[in-house]
Amino acid sequence: MRKLCLLLTLIPVLAMAQSNPPQKFTLQSALDYAKINYPFIKAKQAQKSKAEYELKSSKADYLPNLSVQDQYLYSTNNSVTGSFFPNDGLGIPVSGGIRAVNDYQGVWDSFSTLFVNWNIFNFGRVKAQVKNARQKVDQAELDLENEVFKHQVTVADSYLLYIISEKLTALQQKNLDRAKVVHDAVIAAVSSGLRPGADSSFVEAELSKAKLLLLQSKETESEQKSRLASLLGLNNENFEVDTASYNQVVPKQLQNPEVSIDTHPQIKLYQSNLLIDKSRGQIIRRSVLPSVSFLGGGWARGSGIDNATNAASTSFSKGVGYQVYNYMVGVSMKWSITGLLKGGRDYKANEQQYFSDKYLLDDQKLKLNESLRTARMKEELALEQAKQAPVQLNSAVEAYQEAYARYQSGLSTLPEYYQAFYLLNRAEIDQSYANNKVWRALLLNAASTGDLNIFTSQLNNQ
Known about the structure:
Blueprint: H1 2-19, E1 23-25, H2 27-37, H3 39-59, E2 65-75, E3 107-121, H4 125-191, H5 198-232, E4 239-241, H6 244-248, H7 265-287, E5 291-303, H8 316-320, E6 324-334, H9 339-408, H10 414-449, H11 453-459
InterPro entries: OMP_efflux (IPR003423), TolC-like (IPR051906)
Pfam family, one: OEP
Subcellular location: Cell outer membrane
C-alpha cells in the first residue's frame, strides 16, 4: 500500500519531467530564440514603443489647448483699491466691495471658466518638434536592429565556443582512455619484470595528467554552456546543441566582394545621431521666434453678494447660482526677447554636439574597416590551417602507432613513446580548433561587414 501511495505521488513529477525535455538548438534556432527571448532586446523594443508614443504626443501640439475649471467657494469679500502680481500663483485674486470696515461674514460664491489657447503660428516650431520625434523613432528602430545584430553575433560566437569545448572534452576523454590502456599495459609489464619499475611511476604521473586535462576541459565546457544559456535568456542549462556538422566540416571559401560599411547597423545608428542633432538645431532656432495664438474664453460668476444692493447672503443655493456671464476672444503675440541670447548659445552647444557625433562616426568607420581587414585575413589563414590540420593528424596517428610498436618491442623508452602520445593529442585538438576557427573567422567577417547573412547562409549549406 505504501509503495502504491509513493508511486501515485511520483506520477505527476515524472509526467512533468517528460513534458519538459531538454531543448535542442541548432545554431540558427539559437539565433532566432535569443532574438525574441533576451531581456535587453526586449528593453530596446520597449524603448522603440516609447519613442512611437512620444511622436504621437508631439503631434498633439497642433491641437488647441482647451481647459475648463469650476469652483465653489466660501469666503469673505473685503477689498481695497490697487493691483498686484500673481507671483507664481501665490497672490490670491480678491473680488469684493470696498467698505468702511472689514466684514468677516463669509458668503458662498462660484466661478466657472472655459478657455481655449490655440497656437496658430509659431514659425514651424511644432513641425520641427514632430520631425525630431519621428527621427527618434527611426533611431530607436536602428538601435533595436543594431542590438539584435550584435547579440546574434555574440550568441553565434558563444555557440561555436561551446561546441568546441564539448569536442575538446570528448578528445580529452579519448586521451584518458588511451592513457589508461598504456597504464595498464605498463603496470602489467613492470609486475612481470619486463619493464623497469620507474616506468610504473611515469605512467601513473601521465595518467593523472590526462585526468587533469579532462577536468579542465569539463570546467571550460561548463563555463561556456552557462554563458550560452545566459545569452539565450535561459535561467537553466537544460538544453543541448547540434555539434556534429561544425566540428567536421568547414564553410565554403567566400569570394569577398568589396562592400560599403555604410550599411552596417552600427554606422546607421551613428548617422541617426547626426540627423537628430540637425533637427534639434531647427527646434532651437524656431523656439526664439515669436508665436501667435488665438485666445477664447467664457466664464460665469455667482456670489452671495447682491449686485444691486451689495447685501450679503449666507445661502448656499443663492451664492453658487450664476449671476453674470462673460466671454472674450482675441489674438495674442508672445516673444521672449532675452531668449534670443540663450537660444544662440544653445544652438552653438548643439552645433558642437553635432561635431562630436560626426567625429564618433568617423572613428567607428575606422574601427570597422580595420576589423573587416582583420576578419578577411583571419578567414584566409583559418582556411589554410584547416587544410593542414588533417595532414598533421594523419602523420601524428602514424607516429603514435610506430612509437607504440617500438616501445612494445623494447626499441624505445617510455618518455620517447609519450612524445608521440602528446603529439597525437595535440593534433586531434588542432584539427578541431582549425575547423572551428574557420567558422569564427567567417562570423567575424559578417560582424565587421554588418551582414549576418554572410554567416547564416553557410549554415544552410551544411
